[in-house]
Write a structure and sequence with these properties.
The protein is built from eleven helices and ten strands. It has 317 residues and is of the alpha/beta class. It has one domain: TIM Barrel. Helix 2 links the parallel strand 2 and strand 3. The protein starts with 27 loop residues before the first helix and ends with a strand. Keywords: Oxidoreductase.
Amino acid sequence: MTGPMNRFDDLAPGRLGGALPGAPQPSRRDRLRRLVHDWSLEVTPRTVEALASRAPPPGTQIYITHLPGHPFEEVIATAERLKTQGYDPVPHLVARAIPDRTTLESWLLGLTHRAGVDAVLLLAGSLAAPHGPYADSLALLEAIDLRDHGIRRLAMAGHPEGHPQADAGALEAALISKRDYAERHGLSAWAVTQFLFDAEPLLAWHRRLEELALDLPIRAGLPGPASLATLGKYALSCGVGASRAALAQQGKRLLRLARPQPPTRQVLALAEAPPPGLRLHFYPFGGIAATLDWVEALDEGRFTLEERGDELRIVAP
């Protein structure tokens, strides 16, 4: 089952989940279960209704998207509801959607005092032009001390495959600046990535972060079970880059299958040699129920796994 949020230290050597020097290597099955443990989920204020009939385990970390053009009150209300139900809400705070400092402080007050949350995922957002003085997330951080407004944990966007509005150097510099901000202000920090159709961009990105001495824990974004057409639509709209080639390579095989396909290849590849502190974050493009059914089966060990190849079969409870 999903454990307490952000237990990234579980993978440290000598702790639960971490391998001691000289200890027997875990099996492929064990590596997969360790990777899937403490997964998180993305919802919108509209899709959260699905949790009423298909609920995740208590304590699950649930991220709440602030949809363009929708009032932030929806995000606050959703966070309050999820917190009351025993989840760990992490609302998106979109810098470009904030018209002024007064509104920013009002939103933070609603999140922390009314909804009782202490974490946000800070990102610039996809708006063509900012609604106010915050052109990006760094501009927001330069203007305010989040800790003074009740925020204790800071998630930041990670882009293993780049971003259409910024080059790699700018993205790396921004990530370093946000990590430094978190350290100065005593915030727990981690990165949450865009969704991936292939594991290699994430692994290459992690190697680059190591070169930069950026040891942030990572939640790797993955699409939940969905059709090829749905995945392709989201890939284009969200700017996912190189891993679209991996999706295209699967095209003929997937088109022959009637049911939505889960991210089996990505999960198995990441489980081979996961970076320390890696956790999974699911975008349920094919529906929340289908995503929860699949990931909970892995978390609970209800699957069979071929020792070779990329076949994984869910066992009914």
